[in-house]
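Hey all, sorry for the wall of text incoming. These are the two entities for the joint prediction.
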Amino acid sequence: MRIAVRIPSSTLATMRADLARPHPYAWERVGFMAAAATSSPGELLLLVRGYLPVADDDYVAAPGVGAEIGSEAFRKALQWAYRPKSALLHVHTHHGAGKPGFSGVDLRSGGKFVPSFFTTVPRMPQGMIVLSDDSATGLVWLAEDGKPAPIAAFTQIGSRYRRDWSAS
Amino acid sequence: MSWLSRQSFLGADSDERLAGLMVAIGGLGGGGSHVAQQLAHVGVGGFVLIDDDRIDETNLNRLVGGTRQDVIDGTLKVDIAARVIRAINPEARVTVVPRKWQDALDDIRGVDAVFGCVDSVRAKDELETFSRRLLIPYVDQGMDVHEIEGGFLIAGQVVLSMPGGPCLRCLGVVTDEALDEEARNYGAAGGKPQVVWPNGVLASTAVGLFLQTMTPWHVSQHIGECLEYDGNLHTMQPSDRMRRRRDRPCAHKALADLGDPMFDVRQIVTAAKASVTVQPSEALVPERRWWTRFFRMRSQ
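and here's what came out:
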């Protein structure tokens, strides 16, 4: 199944600005997108409704990776995605240029926490996305016990329509 | 030198960018036939052409590409547009949908822009609402000829409707009064007056707004646009109503109202597992369209 994600440029800009802010001790910030969905044969379309930053206090120190987000951040995100029912997309940025890739830590931790989102919103797909400064890479799970599929297309809609997630 | 070399100012990679786009055109009559022809000329590569109507003699005064032989043959308007597009760009990817747009949702869902070239106010409203729910830019055009004392008045508008920006209701193109009047006149005999040149002006403006959104040749800071046409003075003016509404959120179509409200990913997963065992009789049962259900809910 081909998976595509569309986002308003204004939401993308808000998200990029938040993720670029330094944190007192976390090396990188994370956040969540809530997305609606629709599908046609062979294609799943995720439509980003909004962005939820993670509060400074919801990061906890973690040996080896600087910091990670605590259970309160996940609770808030799931509460947010519960009504209206939304796909929850975990997002962070590696900065730089070109197509970003998930780190081993990203894949190991994401492979655990993303499927857990199905417990709260079982009718929506769930996923995670990593940004660079001009591109994005993502994985989407269609079922809690399934393997993730890559996101094939990223589009932003604003005063310009772009088939990439670069800063406008 | 390519056939598009004279428009390289549209951007260094504009040929590839435009060739990769897919647009839907709802209505291939006097307005839509112009749009289809121009988009083919600028090198847009993908088209979904939607219209269930066939050409008749009264269309010959304005339908681009239509011929007397088409009238004799009763050719579908979508087939005429497809023929025009392929004559310009044989590599264009063209899907013709000789049905109502509500029956073409799977074809529209993945497009990069929707052009609404329909007469009906209700159809404009529904096409725009559908496009907004899928974060698709929607370009609307319309014109009317009114008899006034001492002559006729030609007026129209082109709207680039972008998610988050003012909608057709904000701009007064769709009103409850117009919807009520249209419903009262449903089935009334006789067509509205239509002529070729205002359609051409409006279609050219619509294509210009589309290209401004898709290519970097001129970057507008505005979300959406509305231009009003005075066919008697032959002028196109920025809409005053748009100027007043520009920096205010749309009061009718919230940016967060997206997608299929009844979506359930478990149905996709289940369908994928069952696809190898589905019985032919089951496969023939049409699925209930979320969009149909959605509008039924809205009208209650």
